[in-house]
Amino acid sequence: MSTRWRIGLMSLLCVPGLRAQDAQFTQFYAVPTYISPAFAGTSLQSRGALAYRDQWPSIPGAFVTYDVAYDHYLRNMNSGMGLLITHDRAGSGALRYTSVAAQYAYEIELKRKVFLRPALQVGIVDHAVDLNKLTFGDQLARGDDISTYENVDRREVKYADVGAGLLFFSPTNWLGIAFHHLNEPDQSLLLNETKVPMKFSMHGGHRFAIRTRIIQKHSQSVVAAFNYRAQAKYDQLDLGAYYEREPFYAGLWYRGIPLLKGYAPGYPNNDAIALLLGFIVKDMRIGYSYDLTVSRLGARSGGAHEVTLGYEFADRRKKKAMSKRRIVPCAKF
Fold first, then answer.
1. Which of 314, 286, 14, 288 is nearest to 149 (CA)?
2. What are the CB-based long-range contacts (under 8 Å, 24+) for 136-141?
3. Radius of gyration of the chain (CA)
4. Is residue 188 part of a domain?
5. What would the 3-class secondary structure string for the chain be?
6. Is residue 289 part of a domain?
7. Residue 309 to residue 52: CA distance in whole angstroms
8. What are 47-90's pLDDT values in tens digits?
9. Mean pLDDT across 1-29
10. What is the band of 11 on the pLDDT scale with cuts at 50, 70, 90?
11. Total structural domains in the chain?
12. Cis peptide before 247, with omega less than 30 degrees from 0?
């Protein structure tokens, strides 16, 4: 990490009232419980998922995010439970964020194959900066390794974090909303107060079956979906579609709000175009996506790489029986 970026990172840390945004994933349906706790238990039995995202790798001090999730459907209780672990680091690991959250969703069958799922999420967050990995202005001025912060190696804060969600779905449609950081906890690493702004998201989509004259072993479908997020004064919209024909999946996504919002005059809100490929091998899902940056950062950012893995733990006899009663149409990547 270059000296310029190290100093810049500390400058950001010292700005009063700094507003940070949550990490985002292109393959958000590969780890759906990250979007909303209401997705906990939407698998037929149990599901595990991993996600890795390297954003803007060509820029020193860029963001690397990991996500680990497990959720289970409790059929006898009409409930879903989940565990979500998120780790994010920036600046060669100097600035770190780790969240561990428990999730619970209750499933209400409004009518046959039509469901509503209110949900709650409660977690603990560890937010820290390792000052040993940074270089400060006074060190540059004196030309040595001794800093004003020489007696403070690490600053760290822990806080509780609360979220909620609501999901409606039928065999072909879904629509949900989620609220994260409802308690707006203080995440300041210095003496000033810096609250985490509440995040609102709305997500949904529709599954179109592709019918052919010839009966095929694997059905085909196109899934159109969106994911809108707003946090403090920042908001973003993902629009896209997938083509699904097991074991192959492909998707194309656009991220931005170019017509309704701009960063500045003459600077439209365009972020990225994402390409996605996925495969399913038995109960294992493997996905890769690349974000092509279309904002003014352009090719200098290196885009973003994302890899996801998922596995469904399900008894095949129970899986077949449950799928006749309960179909969740959401995309798999």
1. 14
2. 136/7, 136/10, 137/7, 140/3, 140/7
3. 22
4. yes
5. CCHHHHHHHHHHHCCCCCCCCCCCCCCCCCCHHHHCHHHCCCCCCEEEEEEEEEECCCCCCCEEEEEEEEEEEEHHHCEEEEEEEEEEEECCCCEEEEEEEEEEEECEEEECCEEEEEEEEEEEEEEEEEHHHCCCHHHHHHCCCCCCCCCCCEEEEEEEEEEEEEEEECCCEEEEEEEECCCCCECCCCCCCCECCCEEEEEEEEEEEECCCCCCCCCEEEEEEEEEEEECCEEEEEEEEEEEECCEEEEEEEEECCCCCEEECCEECEEEEEEEEEEEECCEEEEEEEEEECCCCHHHHCCEEEEEEEEEECCHHHHHHHHHHCCCCCCCC
6. yes
7. 9
8. 999 999 998 777 766 689 999 999 999 989 999 999 999 999 87
9. 55
10. very low
11. 1
12. yes
Q: Which positions ≥6 away from 144 have C-beta within 8 Å?
A: none
Task: Say yes or no to pLDDT of 132 above 60.
Answer: yes
* Token pair in block for residue 103: 């999730």
Which residue reads 């065999």 in tokens?
A: 171
Tell me how far apart the alpha carbons of residues 318 and 44 are, in angstroms, rounded to a whole number: 9
On whether residue 35 sits in a domain, the answer given is yes
- Identify the CATH number of the domain in which residue 139 sits: 2.40.160.40
Sign of torsion over alpha carbons 215, 218, 222, 226: positive
Report residue 282 as tokens.
């038995």
Structural domain including 201 reads 3-15+22-325
pLDDT of residue 147: 54
Supply 76's token pair. Answer: 């006898």
Domain-embedded: residue 333:
no
Backbone angles phi, psi at 96, to 5 degrees: -130, 150
